Amino acid sequence: MSFSGMVKEELSKQIGAARHCRIAEIAALLSACGRITPEGHLRIQMENDAVIRKYFTLLRKTFNIESEIFVRESSPQKKGQVYYVELKDEDEIRQVLQAAKLITDTENGETLISGSGLVTQQSCCKRAFIRGSFLAAGSISDPRKGYHFELVCAEESKAFQLQDIIRSFQIDAKIVQRKRSYVVYVKEGDQIVDMLALMEANVALMNLENIRILKEMRNTVNRRVNCETANINKTVNAAVKQMEDIKLIEKKTGLENLNEGLAEIARLRLQYPEATLKELGMMLNPQVGKSGVNHRLRKLSEIANEMRENKEELL
Q1: Is there a single domain that holds both residue 255 and residue 195?
Q2: Among 4, 49, 225, 227, which residue's Cβ finds the most Cβ atoms within 10 Å?
């Protein structure tokens, strides 16, 4: 099961204790997937059986409506099955729509829209509305690959409504048009954690946090390895250049013509090509620090460079 599927599976098992929160979640589900059929029935359908079972349970617990879940085969292109619940009784339909403050969207056929913000006045109801919207039309990427949370809306007005609700929790939700749909999305890892917390997907939140910690640890290790590799390469390249300089001086004038300090460090470098500056300094008598060793090696490099320049002038 995908990470998004696991989040929905967890959320589908949560039934709010407060009636007003259950109504807000029903409103979100119907707003995303509900419609009024030509026969005047209230139908909601989706491919996720866990979510449709939750809607079934919400109707029973909130309005004492006993409905039935129907199953039919999906289109040949999609395969799989489609689940739907349909209310036919006019009184039951009126009761649900009035409580959820939903009206028929006359501009878009038979779909439903939230007629007012009354169902999301309280903070807990806003959380329930976001949860219902995610169950009906949301997805979240696998955090091992990236961070992306989105809610797909058929109409722009629904997208703006969701954006306002999410932003009321100081989460920077944005909207982008994708073909004929409007997508409300969140990209930052920290804010996706906040979204899971809002919806009360606590198990998924902990799983995501564990993945984030592992990713951060890997990134830290990689940075350190890259840094150490760069330092090693820098040290090796410097040692190779130092040995080239010393060999040139030895060939041209001989190391014995250098002063005692330079001759001593030159011989040590030739003898211990892989030694660090600190290690070379400890081999000297008396011992010299890294800066002192570096100073002597720079002096040898200057002498070698002068020899190269003189050779070029003679040519």
Answers
A1: no
A2: 4
